[in-house]
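so my prof wants the structure for this chain in the tokens format not the other one, which i didnt know existed until like an hour ago. anyway here's the sequence
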Amino acid sequence: MKSLISARGKNKSPCRPKKKYTINDLSEIDRGIYQEIMENVLRRYGIVTPQLFLKSSKNENKN
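here's what i got, hopefully its the right format
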């Protein structure tokens, strides 16, 4: 693959995708904070977390 050349004649490096972080990348303390934030957001929108887990388990059982 040829490298891109800018208008000034310098080589351009291709854009690197940003690293996507998962919950497994967080420390134990950060996971607790993340969980609290997510529960608050879900509660604000009227979604109760046990209902969410029941729906996901029902979907897995169907597949």
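also thought this was worth mentioning. The helical segments are 28-44, 49-62.
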